[in-house]
Amino acid sequence: MLFLSETDQIKGENLEEISPQKPEALDENEGKKGGNRWLPIFGLLFGIAALVFIVYFVGFETILEPLGRIGWGFFWIVALNGIRHYLRGISLYIAIPRGETSFSINTAFAARLAGETINTIAFTGPVLGDAAKTAMLKQDSALEHSATAVIIDEIIYYVSSLLLILAGAIVVLYAYGTGVALYVMLVGLVILSVALLVGIWWAVRKGMKPLSWLIKKVGSRWFIPRSLVRKRDEIYNIECNVLEFHSERPRAFFMIFGLILVTHFLSVLEVYWAMQMLGLTATVNGAFIIESLTKAVNFIFFLIPGTVGAYEGGNSLILTALGYSAGAGVALALVRRGGIIFWTLIGGIILFWQGAKTSVEQVVETESE
């Protein structure tokens, strides 16, 4: 069966094999963790510095001039961004079997926005945001179902994005022609995309369960949270659910894959529409290339919160390579970031409301006791 019961155990494995750490080791590990926390902060500061440098280098007026043409058309960018989030919310809803949840698509949409807000502003990459989505969905469904839904949605998104990146790089290489440096970068991007896709295919084919395996092997080390060690059986069940999702629920799998492909199409449409508003010569082919290579930039610099600086700099380089000005690339990135910021604020409101709701429920429970 796809969804295993909570009493299922990992054969031949025992959580007692993982010995507790000594207090001295914990203190030492805490110091190591504290040092690692500075890495994403440094990444954010680096991104902000890069953005300031890009604006200075390109010229503020060069960026401001096309931005002045946007007007009310900006709300189309906001709308397209919101539709993409809503479709991803639907995919979360579909990923949970019928009868195993009591939440609506709107609840999944809210969880999606809240999680993406954390992904945008936090220093943890996508990990904490996905955990927040799981926690919000867990209120109306079992943990193994909500976690499986979030992971399946993310895996299908990343696989389809890799396919988009691969297609975009190939189109640029064979249809446009580039300089030596960019040619080498694009070839490297093609090789990396193919390697990742093959790696994912191989891992699924072999039935690999990397997280539960890692917890078993090195669960006593500082970089493995103790909460994960305690829930290794649950994690194992979730990994089994993910691996068996395609074979056990093929209809849901292809529905989610189709929805995510539509979100990629809307992203290309957003680029095309934004370029039209900025007064740039826009083609569907060019918008497709820009979106695919922008996704590559986001993948490479995912540890920088909001990919600040990297997003704008990447767009500037991409549009320059396609014959546009560097200022046009930065302007395009800023227009699209405006849509991201709008829905990030909505997600922040949802997080605030959810926190307030939880606090009220805790007070009521305390008083009733």
List its traits.
mainly alpha; disordered N terminus; globular; 369 residues; single chain
Question: Could you write a compact summary of the structure shown?
Answer:
By secondary structure, the chain is an all-alpha fold. The protein has helices at residues 23-58, 60-67, 74-95, 105-121, 126-138, 143-176, 180-205, 210-218, 226-230, 232-248, 250-277, 284-300, 310-321, 326-368.
Structure description:
With 369 residues, the protein is mainly alpha-helical. It has one domain. Helix content is 78%, strand content 0%. The chain is built from 14 helices and no strands. Helix 4 runs antiparallel to helix 5 and helix 6 crosses helix 12. It is globular. Residues 1-35 have low confidence and may be disordered.
Q: State mean pLDDT (0 to 100 scale).
A: 77
Per DSSP, the total helix count is 14
What best-fitting shape do the alpha-carbon axes yield? globular
Determine the strand fraction and express it as a percent band. under 5%
Rg over C-alpha atoms, rounded to the nearest angstrom: 22 Å
- Structural class of the secondary elements? mainly alpha
Largest sheet: none
Topology (SSEs and partners):
Blueprint lengths: L22 H36 L1 H8 L6 H22 L9 H17 L4 H13 L4 H34 L3 H26 L4 H9 L7 H5 L1 H17 L1 H28 L6 H17 L9 H12 L4 H43 L1
Helix pairs in contact: 2-14, 3-4, 3-6, 3-11, 3-14, 4-5, 4-14, 5-6, 6-7, 6-10, 6-11, 6-12, 8-10, 10-11, 11-12, 12-13, 13-14
